[in-house]
Design brief:
With 172 residues, this protein is α+β, with helices and mostly antiparallel strands. The chain has one domain: Immunoglobulin-like, CATH 2.60.40. The protein has one helix and nine strands; from the N terminus they run H-E-E-E-E-E-E-E-E-E. The strands form two sheets. Strands 1, 2, 3, 5, 6 and 8 form a six-stranded mixed sheet that branches. A three-stranded antiparallel sheet has the order 7-4-9, with no helix packed on it. The termini are far apart.
Length: 172
């Protein structure tokens, strides 16, 4: 009989504790918003010149990777289209990174006459470095600057340089 009373008392305690836990449950509300846009609206990057022929540079005149540009080649970019909202777009620059610090374009020329220890630096209009694959420039009308650079920790050998840069617009 004592065991039965003890069992009932324990069951009663569990029931009371469950009721107390249930009484403390508080619901939460999540507000979700979104925008549906017209798929006909587009925004595209246009380049005044789609190729950049960098000027001849002596190996002794190369700036070191990470330094500000001294004699950059300038490219004019513009975002065009009905979907280009100046306040909601940024440029993003992607390409194959160098094998030194990974923040400039690699020389993709693998021919016998290719330069070694050289990359293509990307710079903002104030000549500050824009690392590839994570750089954004706000605004739709911008200029981009390019200059060959000596890769950190590598020996420079003369030759040709070739790189490929993708410029895309990201909505923010």
């Amino acid at each position: 009989m004592k065991k039965m009373l003890l069992g009932m008392a324990i069951c009663s305690l569990f029931a009371i504790s469950t009721a107390q836990v249930a009484a403390r449950d508080m619901p939460a509300t999540l507000a979700v918003t979104g925008v549906v846009s017209n798929s006909d609206l587009t925004c595209a990057v246009t380049l005044k010149h789609p190729t950049a022929d960098l000027p001849y540079t002596s190996s002794s005149d190369l700036i070191t990777q990470g330094e500000e540009a001294t004699q950059p080649y300038e490219i004019e970019m513009t975002g065009v289209g009905d979907g280009c909202d100046l306040n909601r777009m940024v440029y993003r620059f992607t390409g194959t990174p160098d094998n030194a610090d990974g923040n400039v374009l690699a020389n993709l020329d693998t021919s016998e006459g290719a330069a070694k220890g050289v990359g293509i630096g990307i710079f903002n209009t104030d000549n500050s470095v824009l690392p590839i694959n994570n750089s954004h420039i706000a605004g739709i009308s911008s200029r981009l600057r390019l200059q060959m650079v000596k890769l950190n920790g590598q020996e420079v050998t003369t030759g040709s340089v070739f790189g490929s840069l993708t410029i895309q617009l990201d909505r923010i």
